[in-house]
Amino acid sequence: MNTEKREKKRVLLLMSPATYRAGAFLSAAERLDLQPVFGVDMPEQLAEYWHVPLGLDFTDIDKSVQMIVDYARVHPLTAVLSVDDSATELAAHAASALHLAHNTPDSAEAARDKWIMRRLMSAAGVPCPVFRNFPLSSDPSELATQVTYPCVLKPRRLSGSRGVIRANNPEEFTTAFYRLKRLLLQEGYDEEHTTFLVEDFIPGGEVALEGLLTQGQLKVLALFDKPDPLDGPFFEETIYVTPSRLPRATQEAIADCVTRAAASLGLRHGPVHAELRINEQGPWMLEIAGRSIGGLCSSVLEFGTGMCLEELILRHAIGEEVRMIERAGNAAGVMMIPIPAAGMLKGVHGVEEARAVPLITGVEITAKLHHPLVPLPEGASYLGFIFSRGETPEAVEAAIRRAHACLRFDIRREIPMVTRR
């Protein structure tokens, strides 16, 4: 009788210290009897103190890849996944070094760098905004005469709509330029070697597509409507609702557009999260990322007989077939609760009242009391999340709006607002 204990498959999960996703991936790994290994963007000494298996510097790709390869020699890995945007390039390099299925390093870089992304999409004929790349050291008064209005200023590598600002005229362009410049300098970018994008503003509604790529073939997991208008001057995400209420032909055109966009970048394997605008001319690609949806938003998605998104992604990563798995349940939605003003969070009221709204399945306040709040375009977080399930997208959206109306946030303006030049 064979009594040898089967060694669990190890999956390396790369993430930033501030990610919301660690718990969901850990739970999913336990359900699949996998052994998750956390690689976190932190100094090695701090990782040892917190008992994190791998403390890595995500900005030092070569060193981090070598550390992962050395670890894998002793503890073989079945897959390498990036939980958020911060490590998609590192995951691609590490998987390549270990001969594991993943996107190529070049495609991972293209999905992170909006300038490379735009050039590749445009060359492949994928509908996307007209764009130009400008040095951060430029004179904004000169640039303001070279662009078409309305336009959108956009950093090349920040995510979550950070630094994305609409300008309707030269005066607004100059103001937006200095605001973006301050943000990038605060993030450690070098003025002399940094560029940013200016794109034509694309009118229309916006959607988000969640999918999985297998050898370049796209499996659409969910298509979210974004019912709130995103017309600027900043582009704060709020409500996502699925299934989409768009006509079937439009949904198919969106999936085709995402497939073409992924192919233009060279993305062929793993999760993708795409953002598109829809107007009378059809779908327009805004961005596509080689990772799954951010924050706690994934918790509204269930597949098959109750499988969560993280479990689906892990199954795919270790080579299981997932093409026949469909989203389960009725309509679902989530609101990323926006930060209305900068200041110190002193209190949150109405949470139980919001949770009591019919069809609301959860209200999670993730902002911490007595901590500063920074709204977009400088901020990188939300106040929390509201979740809902119901028979129809309309009912789910209405429930989320009623729950949000119950919430009251005591924000004291005890930190200085960002001044405009």
UniProtKB/TrEMBL annotation:
Q: Which residues form the signal peptide?
A: none
The keyword S-adenosyl-L-methionine is annotated on this UniProt entry:
no
Does ATP-binding appear among the keywords?
yes
Extract the Gene3D superfamilies matched here: ATP-grasp fold, B domain
Ranges for the ATP-grasp domain?
118-318
Extract the GO molecular function terms from the UniProt entry.
Answer: ATP binding; ligase activity; metal ion binding
Keywords attached to this Swiss-Prot or TrEMBL record, sorted alphabetically, are:
ATP-binding, Ligase, Nucleotide-binding
Alphabetical list of InterPro entries matching this protein: ATP-dep_AA_Ligase, ATP-grasp, LAL_C2
Q: Which SUPFAM superfamilies match?
A: Glutathione synthetase ATP-binding domain-like (SSF56059)
Which superkingdom?
Bacteria
Against PROSITE patterns, the record matches this protein to: ATP_GRASP
Query: What's the name of the protein?
Result: Biotin carboxylase
**Which organism is the protein's source?**
Thermosporothrix hazakensis
